[in-house]
């Protein structure tokens, strides 16, 4: 069940990044069945006119559909990459552009990057998937528009502060996705990390987004916390432990991939 859940979460992330591809895929399938129908009709009429044309149209569509699935599979395989020492700030400007394209013009996307952010040990693709899930939730919470803010912070936590968050004392990098949306009622707030919990209409939500984010934070030895006020908005914050081997990571960037430490 664990593996199946992980797989489902992976597919969910794939689905969200590549929603447009499903649409393209459907169009190609429509082209293929259209060609088959035309061939079937010709055969029933006992005529061979245009059959070769329909065959090659159908074949072409099938080949493009296969190429699409290959891209999807290659993408989902990338999800299992191992963690590397990363200063998250370096990937956020490009990520924010992806979010802007995804959420559309009625939602403003702001970036607030901490100066000299500490490095963390993290898988960049998984982090981006987690953040994209959060941004899509934020957009869904703002049907008539609003603001998504993505912020990073160096966060040293003493014993007491760490305990309050279910963490060990130490240095953390915090990354927060905030929205100005509808917020989450208290009863729901306790359930949002449960797999398959969703308040979205059938077909538009899987209830796996936040449980995937939760799993990602856990795997990265961090935690995810959510704060929300109905009518005002929601903050989701991922805490990731500071990676103290920054020097080594800087050196490793100059090594070929097969020589880099994991
Ligand atoms: P899904 O988005 O498919 O419903 P998630 O696990 O990502 O699955 O979210 C579960 C539920 O948590 C959502 O259906 C929604 O009710 C609530 N939720 C998550 N993020 C937000 C947000 N930023 N604002 C308001 N509600 C949210």
Give the structure's gist in a few sentences.
It contains nine helices and seven strands; from the N terminus they run H-H-H-E-H-E-E-H-E-H-E-H-H-E-E-H. The protein is of the alpha+beta class. The longest helix is centred in the N-terminal third of the chain and has 28 residues.
Layout of helices and strands:
Blueprint: H1 2-17, H2 19-45, H3 51-78, E1 84-86, H4 92-103, E2 107-112, E3 120-122, H5 124-140, E4 146-157, H6 159-164, E5 170-179, H7 186-189, H8 209-219, E6 223-229, E7 233-241, H9 246-252
Parallel strand pairs: 2-4
Antiparallel strand pairs: 1-3, 4-5, 5-7, 6-7
The structure holds adenosine-5'-diphosphate (ADP).
Keywords: ATP-binding, Coiled coil, Nucleotide-binding, Phosphoprotein
GO molecular function: ATP binding
Domain Histidine kinase: 20-244
Description:
- This protein has nine helices and seven strands; from the N terminus they run H-H-H-E-H-E-E-H-E-H-E-H-H-E-E-H.
- The protein has 262 residues and is an alpha+beta fold.
- The protein is elongated.
- About 3% of the residues have low confidence.
- The site of adenosine-5'-diphosphate has 22 residues, from helix 5 and helix 8.
Annotation keywords:
9 helices; 7 strands; 262 residues; elongated; single chain; alpha+beta; five-stranded mixed β-sheet; binds adenosine-5'-diphosphate; two-stranded antiparallel sheet
Share of residues in helices: 40-55%
Q: Roughly what fraction of the amino acids lie in strands? A: 15-25%
Overall strand count? 7
Point out poorly predicted stretches. 247-253
Mean pLDDT: 85
Tell me which ligands are bound.
adenosine-5'-diphosphate
Report the structural category.
alpha+beta
Shape: elongated
Major sheet characteristics: 5 strands, mixed
Number of helices: 9
* Order of secondary-structure elements: HHHEHEEHEHEHHEEH
- Order of neighbouring strands in the sheet with most strands: 2-4-5-7-6
Spatial gap, N to C terminus:
28 Å
Backbone CA Rg? 23 Å
